[in-house]
Each structure stands twice: as structure tokens, then as C-alpha cells.
UniProtKB/TrEMBL annotation:
The keyword Transport applies. PROSITE patterns: WD_REPEATS_1, WD_REPEATS_2, WD_REPEATS_REGION. WD repeats lie at residues 120-155. GO terms for biological process: cell division; chromosome segregation; mRNA transport; protein transport. SUPFAM superfamilies: WD40 repeat-like (SSF50978). The keyword Protein transport applies. Component of the Nup107-160 subcomplex of the nuclear pore complex (NPC). The Nup107-160 subcomplex is required for the assembly of a functional NPC. The Nup107-160 subcomplex is also required for normal kinetochore microtubule attachment, mitotic progression and chromosome segregation. One of its GO terms (cellular component) is nuclear pore outer ring. This is Nucleoporin Nup37. Component of the Nup107-160 subcomplex of the nuclear pore complex (NPC). The Nup107-160 subcomplex includes NUP160, NUP133, NUP107, NUP98, NUP85, NUP43, NUP37, SEH1 and SEC13. Keywords: Cell cycle, Cell division, Centromere, Chromosome, Chromosome partition, Kinetochore, Mitosis, mRNA transport, Nuclear pore complex, Nucleus, Protein transport, Repeat, Translocation, Transport, WD repeat. It comes from Myotis myotis. It is found in: Chromosome, Centromere, Kinetochore; Nucleus, Nuclear pore complex.
Length: 326
């Protein structure tokens, strides 16, 4: 008898706004609990989450809002800076957002009086992905429907610019070698760039479109995953420029692909909001079927916890958390 993988969220947090995007901080900030940021129509909220899976004396989930930042426009994306620290005095909260006005905003806060932001302008269409350089946090990469990938320094100056053949959908920085960048395009091409030589060094092909999201596996950087059309696809870049394995996953087109931060065989995908709900699935490469199926009324965003096999998805005035086994 097949065990049913459909589950309700293990935990939920109520929010004052519709959640368009949510991101766990992927870096160690030195504090207890895990920083999480989510964005809605007007605000970015910074909070901490501690789960019973990591601290025995907590029942379920302990969530606390640290700061609500007025954003003034719908938040499209959020990227955390590795310079964020909770163990410094005062603490440092640093992240950037993309928004519907095609601008990037770089926020710095000490959770008290200091709350500054800088605007990075240059994209001429919607920004689909942004990420900090994970080693130093001194650079930001962004990709857009304007067929460009741009690199910025923290003063807001553009330091590099790559012309793409179609909209840029995702951008990832190599966790160790900070001169390597992965850019995924809607036409199904994923390219790796050397930021020193400003040249593409390798490319992968999905052979199906539209490619909506791709992610570099940080536990094993030979692995790349993506969703294109209704399928998820996984490459081993040492073997072939074509996917090693692919499976159909979402009826209403797949939307987001994210590798787990702790296990190179674990990943999650979301589908576009269908007639009723958005599908959310967790997959393991050792299993032919998804190991967890969830559904969110209007889901958006997807992020893995830094140290637990746990995912968050944004919903209608809610954050929803699912836990799986390794």
C-alpha cells in the first residue's frame, strides 16, 4: 500500500499582508534562531524562527517579528547579505529587494534607529532574480526580463553587464569561488560565467521551455536543477550539457526549483497558482515519487531552512512551513 504523501503545513505564521516572497537567511548570523524575511504589497518584515526540531524546550514554532520596513511598492524578490550579524553590537541586518518598479533596494538596519536604503537603478524590465556574493557580500548579481545580468557593488555602481538571449530567470553565485556565476535564461539555456575574464565558461540546455527557475546545488556544485514547462530537470555538469534526469511534476506549469541546503538529493518545487491552489512538492532523488505534497491557496516564494529539512512557502496573509525527513 502506497503511503499518501499529501500533508498540511506543520506550522503556520499569520501575516498582516499577502506574502509575495519569503527567504530564510542562508548564512550563519551568530544569533539563536533563524532569520527570515518576507515581502508583501507594501512592507518587508524581518523575523526570527526557532523550531522544536532544533530546540527541545520549544513547542512547535517560536516566531518573533524583529522589524517591519515600509517598502512602498510590491516586493518582487529578497536576497540576504552574508554581512548580516545578530551577535554583533549593534546587530547588522543587510538585504536587498527587487520591486515592481524595476529597481533594487539595498537595506541596512541595526534593528533600532538606523534604517537606511540605497536604490540601484539600471534594469529596464522586471527583475526575476538577485543574489549577494556569498563570501564577502560586496557584490549583488541580478537578472531581468530586459535580457541582462548585472553585477553591482554596494555603492550601487554597476561593475559588470552580460547580455542574454532571452529573459534572465535565476542567478546563483558559487559558494566558494566567488568569481563564478550561474545564470538561467527563459529560453532553456543555463550559462556559467567567469567574472574575472567576463566570459561564459560552460552552458547547459534544458531542451524545453519556458525555463522558469534554476538553482545551483550548494552541497554539490556539480549539480544544477531547474523547472521548465511541467518538468523538473537535473544536470551533472561533469557529464553532459543535457539533463541527466527529468520528470513531469506540475500540471499548471512548474514555477520554482530550490535545492535543500543540507542534502544534495533533496529539493522542492512549486507550481503556478492553478484554478484552486498552488502545488508544493518535496522530492528526493532516491524516490520515484515526490516524498511530500502540499497545497497553498495562493502560494508564492519558496525557501529552505539553513540547517533543517524544512521549507517555507508564502501564502494569503500566511507563512506555511513543511518538514520532511532526510
Amino acid at each position: 500500500m502506497k503511503q499518501d504523501a499529501t500533508r498540511n503545513a506543520a506550522y503556520t505564521v499569520d501575516c498582516e499582508d499577502y506574502v509575495h516572497v519569503v527567504e530564510f537567511n542562508p548564512f550563519d548570523t551568530g544569533g539563536s534562531g533563524n532569520l527570515i524575511a518576507y515581502g508583501g504589497n507594501n512592507y518587508v518584515v524581518i523575523g526570527t524562527c526557532t523550531f522544536q526540531e532544533e530546540e527541545a524546550d520549544i513547542e512547535g514554532l517560536q516566531y518573533k517579528t524583529l522589524q517591519t520596513i515600509h517598502h512602498g511598492i510590491r516586493v518582487g524578490g529578497i536576497a540576504w547579505s552574508p554581512e548580516t550579524r545578530l551577535d554583533s553590537l549593534p546587530p547588522v541586518i543587510k538585504f536587498c529587494t527587487s520591486a515592481a518598479d524595476m529597481k533594487i533596494r539595498l537595506f541596512t538596519s541595526d534593528l533600532q534607529d538606523k534604517n537606511e536604503y540605497k536604490i540601484l537603478e539600471g534594469h529596464s524590465d522586471f527583475i526575476n532574480g538577485l543574489v549577494f556574493d556569498p563570501k564577502e557580500g560586496h557584490g549583488i548579481a541580478s537578472v531581468s526580463d530586459d535580457h541582462t545580468c548585472r553585477i553591482w557593488n554596494l555603492d550601487g555602481v554597476q561593475t559588470s553587464h552580460f547580455a542574454l538571449n532571452s529573459p534572465g530567470m535565476s542567478v546563483c553565485w558559487h559558494p566558494e569561488e566567488s568569481f563564478k556565476l550561474m545564470v538561467a535564461e527563459k529560453n532553456g539555456t543555463i550559462r556559467f560565467y567567469d567574472l574575472m575574464s567576463q566570459q561564459a565558461i560552460l552552458s547547459l540546455e534544458s531542451e524545453q521551455i519556458p525555463l522558469m527557475s534554476a538553482h545551483w546545488c550548494l552541497k554539490n556544485t556539480f549539480k544544477v536543477g531547474a523547472v521548465a514547462g511541467n518538468d523538473w530537470l537535473i544536470w551533472d555538469i561533469t557529464r553532459s550539457s543535457y539533463p541527466q534526469v527529468k520528470r513531469p511534476v506540475h500540471m499548471d506549469r512548474a514555477c520554482i526549483f530550490r535545492w535543500s541546503t543540507i542534502n544534495e538529493n533533496l529539493f522542492a518545487t512549486t507550481g503556478y497558482p492553478g484554478k484552486m491552489a498552488s502545488q508544493f512538492q518535496i522530492h528526493h532523488l532516491g524516490h520515484p515519487q515526490p516524498i511530500l505534497l502540499g497545497s497553498v491557496v495562493v502560494g508564492s516564494g519558496l525557501s529552505w531552512h539553513r540547517t533543517l529539512p524544512l521549507c517555507v512557502v508564502g501564502g494569503d496573509h500566511k507563512l506555511l512551513f513543511w518538514v520532511t525527513e532526510m
